[in-house]
Amino acid sequence: MTGLRMLIVSATTVLAVSALGVVMPSPARAVPGPPSVDTARVPADTPPGPEGNARQTKGCAGAGVLADSDLTQPPPPALTLQLAAAHRLSTGAGVSVAVIDTGVRAQPRLANLVGGGDYVTAGGDGLSDCDAHGTLVAGIIGAAASPADGFVGVAPDAQIISIRQSSDAFSADLPPGTDPNDPNAGRAAIELRALARAVVHAANMNARVINISIASCLNAASGIDQGELGAALWYAASVHDAVIVAAAGNTSSGGGNPGGSSCSQNPPESPATPDDPRGWSQIKTISTPANFAQHVVSVGFTSPTGTPSPYSLRGPWLGLAAPGTAIVSLNPLGGDGVVNGVAGPNNGSVPVAGSSYAAAYVSGAAALVRARFPQLNARQVIDRLTRTAHAPARGLDNTVGAGLLDPLAALSADVRLDGSGVGRFGSSALPPIAAPPSRDRLPRVMALATAGGAVILGCGLLGLPVLLRRRKQAR
Prior knowledge:
Strand order of the largest sheet: 4-5-3-7-9-11-12
CATH architecture of the largest domain: 3-Layer(aba) Sandwich
Largest sheet: 7 strands, parallel
Structural class: alpha/beta
């Protein structure tokens, strides 16, 4: 009878637990996120230069003015971002912005331009641009106005430090005996190591903002070591308090990246993965350095009016968005004029577009904020930029991050350091609907338990005569 009693008690307990809906907690899982950083791997700030011998293998890219263009008027992004009004509050004076790119050609309208070094060719100063890219980026950040056109940079009084880190027109010779199957011996890995050194160099030159508009797209299973780059970004952001702005990357060829490089689009975030709300585990294409979101604010691109571009690479690292089409900037071939087109296929021209230029708008805005609020540290500057952006419907997503940049709001909104203030365009939480009063479920549980126990007891009693008869026969 002892075994029968235990069976009845166990069955009653199971019924009671089921009625209460108790579920044993599953072991906690680590939430996916940005790659970890080994701070011991910060590269040395050696004199700028390439890893090996570099030689030019392509002609330099061209740029020009597209047909039927009226460049006497302010370009559409400047109107959307209200740069004229923002300049009444700040012009970026006293702030240095490092442009780590394809180099910047000296321009009369970049009076505060200085060379920061060259990681493409030995002995270079960073003041040459064979790719018609870095000059366009630098112009958006810091070009002075001219009576000949309607273009002006976001922070026209900021200093620009040009560091040439890559060029599609040059190739580096690999050392003899290099394994061609080693992912860390190829061009992508070489450029990432050069980028890491350039970031450390920019930080040591006291750049208050570092713009990186060259996005490297890697397959999630590429095996390329990003350890030095992550450590360099940490060093610049945490040790030197630099605001680091990186382009998110583009999914189509064109003006966004030198050579028309493109990235395969990532899937959107899914509500089916609540433990990974921004979809870090679903990444197919890594955009670096944007993926180091703990140290970098990455920027996707939109139309001038804020419509997200389908060609902007999605990712859980997205921090902000800014206009990346209808772009006008300084002529990378020299002079003091402006262009809105770059070389395209079949000897034609295509509009300047891409996340590279959206990142430049954010870097310029960061310079404005740093000049107006010099007491803010880098994280507080980024917080001000993101909390005053025009937020998307869900408040934060993988296409535009916290939303469309608004420099004027970033310079004027009530954004308190304790986090209690709100920006002008932040998302609002809906008030929760009151839940109906819960019913007392104990009577139901006890009834079920009693009924279940009675059924089991009854079954046991019905079988008791049979059990006793078998015992008697066994004797």
